[in-house]
Queue: 2 jobs
Job 1
Amino acid sequence: MDALELLSHDHRMVEQLFRDYQASASDAQRRGVVEIVVRELSKHAALEELMVYPLARKVLPDGQQEIDEHLAEHMSVKKTLLALDGLSAGDDRTDALMADLQREIEHHVQEEGVLMPKLRAAVDEQALQELGAELDKGKQTAPTRPHPHAPDEPPLLTLAGPVAAIYDRLRDRLQGRPQT
Ligand SMILES: [Fe+2]
Ligand SMILES: [Fe+2]
């Protein structure tokens, strides 16, 4: 999967988890779904911030402002995830927080439906494949809990290295530089 396919796949998985939550028959089952949602969305948001948004900032003409907006929205998602993370099975705040989260994620998916075609147009398929491989690898080490107070942008983030390399190689191809 290339990077954009991988992110869309994550979105579909989380939408399914919201349906699983609705279909759950017990507090324990609901809590199980909540914990998977916290884990998957924490990883997804962190990897977008580390690897995808920095690239978008560089390659999209309106990237700076657009990504600032995405990061602000990530912040509200992470705060909701943090609140959910602190609950235990059967807590009666869970339903309302999951409803908030679902609204935030619907919005996130909608906004990225605008962002992704722009990225696909601006970045060649080879770079998207390389970025997809880095995202896939990053899933093994990405944070599994929300960290709304941690930095959400490179260069404070160590994972940005591979992305810088992908961006360099993309520019090399676009500018006809030697590719060894
Ligand atoms: Fe996303
Ligand atoms: Fe995002």
Note: The longest helix spans residues 27-59.
Job 2
Amino acid sequence: MSAPYEIRGPKLPAIPLVLDSPHSGNRFPDDFGALVSQSELREGEDCFVDELYAGATEMGAPLLAALWPRTYLDPNRHAGDVDLDLIDGPWPWAYVPSGKARLGKALLWRTLEDGRPIYARRLSPEAVRARIERCHAPYHAAIRGLLDASVKRFGKVWHINCHSMRGTAGRQSEDGEGNVRADFVLGDRDGTTCDPGFTELVRRTLAGMGYSVKVNDPYKGVELVRAYSDPMAGRHSLQIEISKRLYMDEAALAKSAGFGRLQKDLTTLLEEIRKAL
Ligand SMILES: [Zn+2]
């Protein structure tokens, strides 16, 4: 695999706004070794999310996009959030469990949404370590670098961590199978990762466009909004989850007629954020 990520738009923030899309990649590394097909593994992908926010780059906000698939390694987990049921032998490095291993969705996914195993056998600790070094570490260094560059230049940064979610909860989802989700779910880890005014601005703007919006329910935000945020020091991170039913055919993994409107509305949202920076 070549470089594990791309920075779209300016390489340094021209305004104090940085976006990242950790789950929209679908370049499958040769050493994945999965038992199931690539299209099945793409159920974990936040398809086209990097494209939905393309308007950011023209405003001077860089967008960091992971290129590898999320099922291979999830950069929105702590590097120590290893699923011990996937490891052959003892795990010799830092172990920081989040509890997601029981759902098969820790740093490396163990199962698909329907519970089928992704691998035929356990992986060596060294193989998992290699994925961390090849994907997780450089991605985190890149997002940290962009956030730090904004703080250095502007004394602050507003970070949007961009995701999408199944329109309806699946079998392994924590909000209960069949639950129909809101159009958007904003996550600021219960008001700890950004100024509450930022969450409210995004909520109000999206609601004003006619979308249903929930805050911290069922998603509060995970590692990428937790790790580098510090609202008291001017570092604000907000996770935005978009329902896939707004813009794609989930079964066909294809854009739907709604894609263009949503992309336009997200550009309007970014304009509103820029005015408030
Ligand atoms: Zn995601």
Note: The mean pLDDT is 96.
